[in-house]
Amino acid sequence: MVDAMITTTRFAPSPTGLLHLGHAYGALFAQDQARRRKGRFLLRLEDIDPGRCRAEFAAAIIDDLRWLGLDWDAPIRRQSEHLEEYRRLLARLAARGLLYPCFCTRKDIEAEIARSGHAPHGPDGALYPGLCRSLSADQRAEKQAAGQTCALRLDMAAAIAQTGTLWWHDHHAGRIAAQPELFGDVVLARKDTPTSYHLAVTWDDALQQVTLVTRGQDLFAATHVHRLLQALLELPTPQYHHHPLRTDSQGRRYAKRDKALTIAALRAAGRSPAEIQALAGFIPLSK
Ligand code: GLU
């Protein structure tokens, strides 16, 4: 049993491509935050997307991180090996009446938004217009019998009614009131896999006793949803540190399409780990 007071951080890439300088910064930052507090640092592979994740990217990520000098304190957790755990969480939420099956295709959603002429937007784009929220049990059974696949969505209004106002703490931004309603009825189980980023990350951070979640500013808003899921599933709330995203010399965020700035390409071009740390803009604080 790990002492819950020990600072535990993690780096949690999705093996959908090679690591770039932005990832190097995120991994080094997470490890450094643990080391400076004499804590633990973990590596987790968020490989739930069967269409985009590839074993060779996972292997390359592990190899690049080791080469960069990262060292994790527990075996790597691979989310794809734990789908049964996520199914159990979904069953708990369903038992509280908080989930509903959604049969919509992307096209159905676009058509409904166009039809209604009303398209409230959240951090991930247009909010789900609620088409499947009020289907009757018969209508659901009929669609299932016809072989239509479904995602599971959280009934956001019902969920918030059960938790009331929630708060979380960000080392950079301070005390934050959670606003999960910004996301509308988020998908918690995708059509192709029995979980989603939000559900899996929230569960894994709790299970692995992560006390400080560090990640890029681009995921700041997602934390509103994670805080809600923690309350619904009675999980502890870690502290958060969303760091600014690193940018290239033109001020653009690093992205998977920037092939020349992957760690693998820079390694192949003869760069050293120390040079990559410097290129990523990482200044260790732990020494
Ligand atoms: N797997 C996510 C990504 O690669 C990061 C998850 C997180 O740090 O919360 O973008």
UniProtKB/TrEMBL annotation:
Signal peptide: none annotated. It holds the Pfam family tRNA-synt_1c. Its EC number is 6.1.1.-. The keyword Ligase applies. It comes from the Bacteria. Coiled coil: none annotated. Belongs to the class-I aminoacyl-tRNA synthetase family. This is tRNA glutamyl-Q(34) synthetase GluQRS.
